[in-house]
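My hope is that you will study the protein record below before we discuss the fold together.
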Amino acid sequence: MEGRYVVVHIPGDQKILSLCEVEVYGYLAGNRAVDGAATQSSTSSGSWSAEKAIDSNRGLQQLYTGCSSTLNETNPWWRLDLRDIYRVSEVVVTNRNDCCPERINGAEIRIGNSLENNGNNNPICAVIPAIPAGESYNYSCDGMEGRYVNLIIPGDMKILTLCEVEVYGEVPCLKRSFAKMQFNSRADLTDASMRENVLKQFGSALADRGLTDVTLRWSQTPKQVIQKVNAAKRESVLTTSANATTTFSCGGMEGRYVVVHIPGDEKILSLCEVEVYGYLAGNSLE
């Protein structure tokens, strides 16, 4: 049930309501972390698994079964995969309620889409100076976009313990991007199998950058584009001696036609051999 107020009420006349303690357990509605997947750099012995930090139990009553913790190591980290890209407005972190609450001091909250360095190179939302034992502190991330939420403590001989991490933000950011690319290739991209291979390579490159839920398709069939070159803008004057073969560099000029032309009247053009070297250029896709 969702709500701001909890009311204990005895209906009827001449009643007395005595309460020695009221405890309410739950989590704020809209917590995106509960549907995510958690992992961490290492796991302390026992039941201190990464998922314990997103189980909707802040671990204050059952510390040893309700919190996550790494081993004592260099740069320990914890990562949450939100499974979609969100605009994150706020991250709530609950610190342990027993010993050593100071261990969380200096932890960085990072949000982004990259899995480079296990996601620990993503932009920083906040640095945690300190959280008192058993307290939950809110950190504003001002709509930072990302699929991954990381907490990392830089330095040697560190232990990262998290009793709960809550992430609040807007619905997934659905994005459609169009890429226009030009290839210099000997491959025939008008061939369907070659086009499929290009998409696979492109998808693999995106996955390396953390973008895995991507649908790629050709908006139109690639075609070879032949660009006409204005010969008036670039002419080569050919000079060669008898029985000699001379090489002329064209500097990568693009074109379909090669013309050898002698300007003027009463001219004779004799060619014993013309050889042209290069590669297919202008293959493009949209």
In short: The domain at 32-169 is CATH 2.60.120.260 (Jelly Rolls). The longest strand covers residues 77-94. The chain is about 5% helix and 25% strand.
